[in-house]
Amino acid sequence: MYEVHPGVQMFFYDAESIRRELGPHGEIELSEIDEATPGGGTFPFINVVCRTE
Predict the structure, then answer these.
(1) What residues contact residue 11 under an 8 Å CB cut-off, 6+ apart?
(2) Mean pLDDT by 10 residues, the chain (53 residues)
(3) pTM reported for the whole predicted model
(4) Residues 29 and 15 sit within 8 Å (Cβ to Cβ)
(5) 28 Cβ neighbours under 8 A, 6+ residues apart
């Protein structure tokens, strides 16, 4: 976990660690997102949707 700005916490996972930690709690859907940065580049994110029964 990193606090990039006061009050803004970011957690960094790869797809395997997401499945390992969240998989036991329900169905997981992952999709990759390239977020545009002010400098014109992109920053990769993984969008996670976890559904429980």
Answers:
(1) 1, 2
(2) 75 88 89 90 88 80
(3) 0.60
(4) no
(5) 18, 19, 22, 48, 49, 50
